[in-house]
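On clarity, I found the account of how folds are encoded harder to follow than it need be. Since the whole study asks how a given chain folds, the encoding of that fold should be made plain. For illustration, here is how one protein appears when written out as sequence plus structure tokens:
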Amino acid sequence: MLAVSLLLSACGSGDSDSSAPVLTVPAAVSVKEKTQNIITANGASGNFSWTQISGPQLQLNNAQSATLSFTTPAVDADSQAVLQVSLTTADNKSSSQQVSIQIKNNQLPVLTAHFNTVDEKKDAELSVQASDPDGSISQILWEQVSGPAVQISGNNSNKIRFIAPAVNSNSELGFRITLTDNDNEKEVYHRVVTIRQLLAKVQVWGKVTAPEPAIADVTIFFAGGQFAATPDNKGEFDLTLEHDDDESNFVALFKVNPLNELHLSYYALVPDLQTLTAQPVQINAWSTAWYATLVAANLQKEPKDLASIVAAERKALVATIPDSAALATLLFSGKVALPFSSNNLLHLLSNKTQLDELKNKINTEQPALLANTQQQLLSDHSLLPQTAYHPVLSEIAASMPGYTTAVPVSYAFSREGYGDTISTASLQTFTWQQQQNQLQLSWQDYSTTVSEPVVAGLMGITEQQAQQVRTYMQNLQLERNYQHTELMPLVQGVKRHLYAVTDTYQQKMQQLVLPGLTLPAQQQQVSKTRYTLMVVPDAEPETFSKEELTGEWAFYRYLKQAFNPVDNYYLDPLTFHPNGTGQSSNTKQPFQWILAPNGSLMILFDNGHKMEIQKFEKLGDFYQVYIRYYENNAPVAAAMSLALPVSATDAQQTSISNSTNAYWQTMSGLSSPTRWNGLKLPVTAGDNSNNVRGLQFRPDNSGDSVSSTKFTFSPQLSTRFSWTLTQDHNNKQIIRGEGNWSCPSGQVCFRRDWRILKVVPGLIGKRIYLEENVWLRFDNKSNFEHLTGPALTFVEEVPYSYFQQTP
């Protein structure tokens, strides 16, 4: 508010009549735009009146008094307005004066700022200089308007601080900075600061081993980026890869094309950073075949991360790899043409149907070509990964397609150069030495009897003789005396590595006398190569913890059965106490347990039995483990098996009753860990089984067997049974189902006991893991005999509507 008052009578301009009343006002005043001001006129007593003569329109208040209040408008530039004040006295004499109002345009605040680039995840400080040419700054306000959000401190000062966000590329943060001056006028500025992505560098090197024609550049797909390298005339290359320092997916795919042949490519998949930097990347026929196998196992999709690679390894069809490697070599070299039905080499090698068609065509036209090419690949040691075997205790367990192996075999190597191999129920010893990157095993008294199909060439048998022998038998019993075995790594995976295992042995056939044919005793020296996946323990294997183990776990135990070695295993849940003691659930055997320095769980029973358990990997609701079984400190068996934590709460709170239009889909053939081959339900997509088999439990304690096919679903109910909740001999709550099965009508001959171990969400509905025992008798007068179990199985509740909704 500006007050102006002047007593000098000569000021102002207006009527100069000497008889006019005295009136004095300032001749001119200077004010700012958009401000409220006061002017006071002095003079004789009378009536005052203010009016605007010219200029930007002022807002006049109290215009009929000596003191005028007025508000200036906003102006774009300095401006002038003229006011006139008039005074009329009681004797009707008057005078007037004019006042010039100089309106000054307010100058807005000025911002000066320059921001340096800020590294991601670092402390950042941004500062500005603010000034007002005709006043002062009353307020500063910072607001973020773009980019990854950050937490600002000091947003009402000329300096702010924040932690720069993590970014996967150079990024900008945008800020709106509002300056307010002492006249409450605001000026808004926008400024940006660049957040610099921090990159880590990885030095890699490798070698392309491929037949002619000459290769072009190597393309590397890594950490979301694409890189290129040019091999030298030896096929060797090296380059630096860059990746975001927060990157966690370090899967690298190397792809090599021959010149002008973009539909043919060699591949190598490197699953992790450690493998990528520890040794040269080998890009060749083996690595290409391995990658194609993983693509096929991943439902024809290229695996992009570690999880999908590990999952594909579990289902890799190893049998296709030798042919795939040979075909890749022949196709790349141009000796065999890519079929018209295939878009590229990867498409062909990952499609078993097309692969078999081309293989059969080649074998018909050039019978020895594929076999010779395979042998050439095996004999070329430059194709093998440069793996170093350290002379320390290690194990290699052969794995078949699926989640575990049907007949696991482990190889244990000691520092002293000897070792043993143990499978489901046999133990053999050997000496070993390393030659380049291969292991040579020399067997000590390793003999066995095998049954081989009768074919021409076996033990020198001709085709005519083979036809005669097959009239009486389909297989020959042969004695084998193993001499040595060569373990040759072909490709390194994540959990499983591809090996060629070449066994050399003497094979003997006793004299065979048949009607019209006598085959003399024969002896052959045989060298035979098989391909297998090997589970190689990690340098830092997964381990159990004391806290994790405390409680009950479902484990399989070993007990040799002379009549059927495959059924040497039975489920015997173990309860672990924190003090290192425990007891088995079914056999009531006490034990002691320790966590060994190498990460293994050692369980020692009072009867001299021992289990050495190595955690392998987590699969859904349980762990896959590798178990060695000992009797009196001597190893007797080994198996890839399961470890499932048991939930007592689940058993108490879970109802087995189905709704009217639902049933429990059952699994079978899981009586031994050697038979556990996957976790998919037979009714799920991707499984070859079309059968629906299960049980329906009604709330009234009756039930039915359910059967149908998933493509023409129409549930067939049969074999009525009754069920109840009861206690087993261990006082554990079980579900007991009893019914008629292959015995006189109206009699109960079949009993199935289920103990609930754990309940989890399944693929379709609720899934229950169970301990199962099956009992059988011939009629009501005979005693129940234990048929199978205890075994681990699971059921999953499936609504009937699932089959109408799912192709």
Q: What stands out?
A: The chain has a mean pLDDT of 84.
